[in-house]
Specification:
Layout: E1 2-5, E2 10-13, H1 14-31, H2 36-45, H3 50-74, H4 80-106, H5 110-142, E3 163-166, E4 171-174, H6 176-192, H7 197-206, H8 212-237, H9 243-266, H10 269-292
């Protein structure tokens, strides 16, 4: 069953798009990410123009985050104060990111930049998370009663001013640190069409030192509002939001997100981090393969019809 996407200017199978939305929603519920780090590359793989995939995916990130956030909010797994501080940086960063996206689109480099950024960031984060998860799992298998080691180290940045107490996360750190992280996530959300959770979740665990259970709900809180801001700005500035594509992704995501949230409640944090790292690496390898693959036609001739 084919449906025409007006902004992408092509027809796509409805069930394929619904399946991609469902997979992204499942990831949103399980790992506290928007799911865009998987859905956006897959949309590009099936033929959606990268600029349209990035802008339209932000809509689906909003829907996934709402569905997943409701579950985690009821369970009390949202640090509202931390979420608001992250959101401050995220709103500034997403606005700046849309301006950068517009510039890259105008000079014709947006497709290449999107692909390269995905490969570099997903590979780095995936390897780091996989190594840490494997070490933690092996250590606990050898000595299950051993106390859990610290997930983060108090670097120099933790001595920054403007310290706040985050009671839910049991932290006392500078507000500048989560604001900076939120800013970076906002830029990534605008340029890559993702919620930024694949960067935000590891940063909240390993840099801020937040408990994994609280991280998932809090990240969804920040992702929700940042993705909404990106969607509005992309539609108003670049006109690359395909509403039909976004609605199909949202329908699939609304089904997948609650399922992912329930699965997350049944799995240990170390297992969740390990699964997420594997998924990230799989997507990175596929993107790298696409970048290195020789195109079927090295040269093409274009023409412009001259109206009489």
């Amino acid at each position: 069953m084919e449906i025409y996407l007006p902004i992408a200017e092509q027809s796509m199978n409805v069930f394929v798009l619904l399946g991609l939305g469902g997979a992204a929603g499942l990831l949103a519920g399980m790992f506290g990410v928007g799911g865009g780090f998987l859905a956006t590359p897959l949309l590009i793989f099936v033929g959606i123009p990268p600029a349209v995939a990035v802008a339209s995916q932000a809509n689906q990130v909003v829907a996934n985050s709402i569905s997943s956030l409701q579950v985690h909010w009821r369970r009390g797994n949202v640090d509202l104060r931390m979420g608001l501080v992250l959101l401050l940086g995220g709103m500034i960063g997403s606005s700046a990111g849309v301006s950068l996206f517009t510039y890259l689109k105008n000079i014709g480099q947006i497709d290449f930049v999107i692909a390269v950024l995905y490969v570099v960031m997903l590979s780095t984060i995936g390897v780091l998370m996989l190594v840490e998860s494997a070490r933690t799992y092996i250590r606990r298998r050898r000595n299950p009663e051993a106390p859990r080691g610290k997930l983060h180290t108090h670097y120099l940045v933790h001595r920054l001013p403007l310290k706040l107490r985050f009671y839910k996360s049991k932290l006392y750190i500078s507000a500048l640190l989560p604001i900076g992280i939120g800013f970076v996530i906002g830029v990534l959300s605008a340029v890559l069409g993702v919620g930024g959770g694949f960067v935000l979740v590891p940063a909240m665990i390993y840099i801020l030192g937040m408990p994994t259970a609280v991280v998932i709900g809090t990240s969804n809180f920040q992702i929700l509002f940042v993705a909404a801001n990106v969607t509005f700005l992309q539609a108003a500035t670049n006109g690359t939001v395909d509403v039909v594509l976004a609605l199909l992704l949202i329908l699939g995501g609304v089904v997948g997100a609650p399922i992912g949230s329930r699965l997350a409640a049944k799995l240990p944090g170390v297992v969740l981090r390990g699964l997420m790292s594997v998924l990230i690496l799989v997507v990175a390898v596929e993107l790298l393969t696409e970048l290195l693959r020789t195109p079927s036609s090295l040269y093409s001739l274009g023409f412009r019809q001259v109206m009489p």
